[in-house]
Amino acid sequence: MAKGAGQKRKTLILARVLLERTDEDHTMTVPELITALEAEGVTAERKSVYDDLEALRGFGLDVQSRKGRAPGWFIGERPFQLPELKLLVDAVQSCKFITRRKSDQLIGKLEGLTSVWQARQLQRQVYVDRRVKTMNESVYYSIDTLHAALAEGRGVRFRYFEYNVRKEKVFRREGAWYAVFPHGLIWDDENYYLVGYDEEKGGVRHYRVDKMAGLEITDRTGKEGGGPGALDVAAYAAKHFGMFSGREGRVRLRCENGLVGVVLDRFGQESILVPDGRNHFTVTVDAVVSPQFFGWLFGLGDRVELLAPDWAAVAFRAQLDAVGANYGEKQKD
Predict the structure, then answer these.
(1) CA 324 to mean position of chain CA atoms
(2) Which residues form the WYL domain (predicted)?
(3) Which tens digits make up the pLDDT trace of 192-201?
């Protein structure tokens, strides 16, 4: 390689070496940097290396030097610090809608954002109880397609399916295409949902992204459904328990004081809690009353009471009776 061509690459190679091999605990001296450059076929003198280090610093790279114990040069601040990368790795590793192969690829890219020494700390396994990774990598790309549709203000179409007892796909609406104008995406209970205006139903619906097939962006705009941003997606998500549909209502609950944290976690810090005696409080919230909502109530036992609306209390009692009937005394065979 011609000397001139090598010199043009010298500063770039030096930056790469520093980013890959140094951090606050691992420095490189100028002679070591010169050796690293020579391994890339580039010769360098001490003065030129110092000039390049200053140039990189002026360009915005946090190049630092240290004297005394473990003297040398290293990269200080980075776009992502090690604790932040650990958090991102844990999120990728534990996310069930990302396949194991894609998880490994993403984590490998995250490792490239720090030194080889700190990257070793990112090679860790996160264990989550009963976690099952999806085998369908198309979910990863479906999410990207939906974000593109939202950014462009365009509609999407897809076929929607469930599984039968033989684990076979069974398409809803006899395999017909769903035409939906997206309002936003919700990540709830480790599943992605599309919230949008369903053209056929004439209203807002939500759909599990991993149950979509043949997803594609259409040429139609979302004006009929209000378009992206026309719906408060966060408020929509807060009303639905487990993203199950049901009848929406203004629900009033009476809870023990020990459930304040539970209520705030579920309905948000803006919820208004009204003291009711020494040991209880009431709260009124908008919620979609569904079997999952009743399941949440049941899990709290006698520490919470559904006061209103009357139709919701009646429905809750009916569901309790129906479930209880399955566990009554049965005739022996």
Answers:
(1) 37
(2) 143-216
(3) 889 999 988 8
